[in-house]
Design goal:
Elements: E1 2-3, H1 6-11, H2 15-23, E2 30-31, H3 40-52, E3 58-62, H4 64-78, E4 89-90, E5 100-104, E6 116-121, E7 126-131, E8 139-140, H5 152-171, H6 177-199, H7 204-224, H8 228-240, H9 244-259, H10 264-273, H11 283-300, H12 315-326, H13 338-347, H14 350-354
Parallel strand pairs: 1-2, 1-3, 3-5, 4-7, 5-8
Antiparallel strand pairs: 6-7
């Protein structure tokens, strides 16, 4: 079964793949009902399609959403005895899923390298991750040509999503020398290429480098994990259907600034890797300069500085859900309280900042 979205199908991005499958007499069924922030019902529908057509493997073709749906369908095939809500969290599958091939068409989610599938429970306005090593795709195919059709806006927010993965993995308490190396590679590639890809979508070298960066960041955070930026973004995605990349883009500098000196050394290191500072500067200045560089990147790529959709009456519940997701699962550099989280949600809400 090929899991994708109807837009990619209509653009003709799958044409060569389908032709090759036809020429090799490989039967396939296309499931193209995936949307941004895919829901439990989308996965269930895909699982039923898989079973009806007697499929035996899955190709995920698209951004993070199709890849996440493909993983969740695979999880259902492996564990038909469980519903998707019962798979929330860590190690709830523990059986091999069907062979999974991931072909990303965005450079951001890194889902082609991770053990996570993020699904939205629309009935409960919840967005959660299913985490199990069996969800790591067997193969990932990184083809920059497939990302050329990305709009500048999607190029920007998916690229900043990858940057968030790399940074949160790097500053957390569960990193290793290997994950730190991968994060540094990703950060350097992103700062050197994201604006080039945003400005000129046909720049294949920039596109290739962004795909590499997304993959490296995915490898890093699937081992070292993420932090409060993701917890907040998942709350917003579940409540308001805000795209994950956009939410991360806006939240990232605010959370890094809130951490203060707890992350100054790590951010200073990343600043040097990205060529933004030198060792002759004060560590605090390097770290603050790095955060400002993220803000400047957002501004250059027309990413808004705040998230207007937030209803301030929802902030207590948003904060509660973010804290429940992050504590104690995420190896964050500093444990935040529910009141801290409320402050952060107020900070990223335009209405509050203009009042």
């Amino acid at each position: 079964m090929i899991v994708t979205d109807s837009n990619l199908l209509s653009l003709g991005l799958l044409d060569e793949l389908l032709l090759d499958l036809d020429n090799n007499d490989i039967k396939y069924k296309i499931y193209d009902s995936v949307k941004t922030n895919p829901t439990i019902s989308v996965v269930e529908s895909g699982y039923n399609c898989y079973q009806r057509n007697k499929c035996d493997s899955i190709i995920a073709f698209g951004g993070g959403s199709p890849i996440d749906v493909a993983k969740a369908i695979g999880a259902k095939v492996a564990r038909p005895d469980k519903n998707l809500r019962e798979m929330k969290g860590l190690l709830k599958i523990r059986k091999e899923i069907p062979p999974l091939f991931a072909i990303p068409t965005t450079a951001g989610s890194g889902s082609e390298a991770t053990l996570s599938s993020v699904i939205t429970d629309s009935e409960n306005s919840d967005k959660y991750a299913i985490n199990d090593p069996v969800l790591i795709p067997n193969y990932a195919i990184l083809d920059p040509v497939l990302t050329v059709e990305l709009t500048p806006h999607l190029t920007a927010i998916t690229g900043m999503d990858a940057l968030t993965h790399a940074i949160e993995a790097y500053i957390g308490k569960n990193n290793t020398e290997e994950t730190k190396r991968l994060s540094r590679q990703a950060v350097k590639l992103i700062f050197n290429n994201i604006y080039l890809a945003y400005k000129d979508g046909d720049d294949l070298q920039a596109r290739k480098n962004m795909l590499k960066a997304s993959y490296y960041a995915g490898l890093s955070f699937t081992r070292a994990y993420v932090g409060y930026v993701h917890a907040m973004a998942h709350s917003l995605g579940g409540y308001y259907d805000i795209s994950h990349g956009l939410a991360n883009s806006v939240i990232l500098p605010t959370v890094l600034d809130f951490y203060g000196e707890n992350v100054h050394n790590e951010l200073a290191e990343l600043s040097r890797v990205a060529g933004l500072s030198t060792e002759n500067q004060l560590v605090r200045d390097e770290a603050e300069g790095f955060i400002n560089s993220i803000i400047e990147l957002n501004q250059k790529m027309n990413i808004p500085p705040r998230i207007e959709e937030i209803n301030r009456n929802d902030i207590p519940e948003l904060a509660k859900r973010a804290i429940e997701e992050a504590n104690p699962l995420y190896p964050v550099p500093e444990i935040l309280t529910e009141n801290d989280m409320k402050s952060l949600f107020h900070e990223i809400n335009r209405a509050d900042n203009n009042s």
